[in-house]
Amino acid sequence: MSVSTRPNGVSRAQKTALLALGVIAAVAIGFALGFLARTNFLGGDDSVPAADSVDVGFAQDMSVHHNQAIDMSAIALTNASDQRVRTLAFDMLTSQQNQVGQMQGWLAVWDRSPVGTDGYMGWMAGDEHGHSMSSMSTEGTGPVTAMPGMATADDLAALRKATGSDVDVKFLQLMLRHHEGGLSMMEYAADHAETPALVRLAQSMISTQQSEATLMEQYLTEKGAAPLPAN
Predict the structure, then answer these.
(1) pLDDT single digits (tens) 124-146
(2) DSSP string of 183-196, one letter each residue
(3) Range name among 43-57, 66-80, 82-96, 169-183 with the lowest pLDDT average
(4) Rounded distance, CA 197 to CA 195, Å?
(5) What is the DSSP code string of 14-76?
(6) Could you give the CA distance from residue 159 to residue 166 in angstroms, rounded to a whole number?
(7) 11 has which bridge partners?
(8) For residues 55 and 183, what is the distance between their CA atoms, to the nearest angstrom?
(9) What is the distance of C-alpha 2 from the center of its chain?
């Protein structure tokens, strides 16, 4: 049985295997950085953040948010037709896997659950960056059932089924909305979290994702496509 290859001579199976190894390495490195960093290394005193703190809530919710971005990036890395989009997808996949590893490592050190159990974003008492929590919750305050920017099951199915240049456009649209939706959480954590290393991570996410958003907007314009409305 012959194995289909891409122009560079690397088969799809080989590429998938290499991608899996890269993902494992990225998350393992990130987890090690987070787990080995005890509180005094992270900065601050020896106290452990409360279960309902900004630090814990951000690490839990942003891990979930990142994991969807990782899934979409893996699809684009394999199927996108534009090499620039594949490169961008690879950068997003590896960097966000590393960040998830760090956040999950901190949660393990703090003996906190890897994910929240009562919805999302309840740790944001109020958003001073213009994203009203009341607009995302039927009760006006408290956790919400879905974070801003998240793709739906139908969105993900369409991305997986897309071919050719449609993969590029769908990925860029979904990921741009995803980046924009997560910005309020990053900004809130950068302003209100108490763990210095987590604050620095949130600040780094803001800088990186704003640069990536600008690039995605440029690519969409070149392809004659428009960004998706916020959700």
Answers:
(1) 986 554 444 433 433 346 899 99
(2) HHHHHHHHHH---H
(3) 43-57
(4) 6
(5) HHHHHHHHHHHHHHHHHHHHHHH--HHHHSS-SPPPPTTSHHHHHHHHHHHHHHHHHHHHHHH
(6) 8
(7) 5
(8) 16
(9) 37
Q: Give pTM, 2 decimals.
A: 0.80
Q: Mean of the pLDDT values across residues 50-78?
A: 98
Q: Give the CA distances from residue 207 to residues 153, 187, 221, in Å, rounded to whole numbers and listed in that order.
A: 28, 10, 22
Q: Copy the structure tokens of residue 51.
A: 């279960």
Both tokens of 194, joined, read: 């108490």
110 in Cβ contact with 47 (< 8 Å): no
d(CA 97, CA 207): 17
Residue 216: Cβ-neighbour burial (10 angstroms; 0-12, 13-18, 19+)? buried
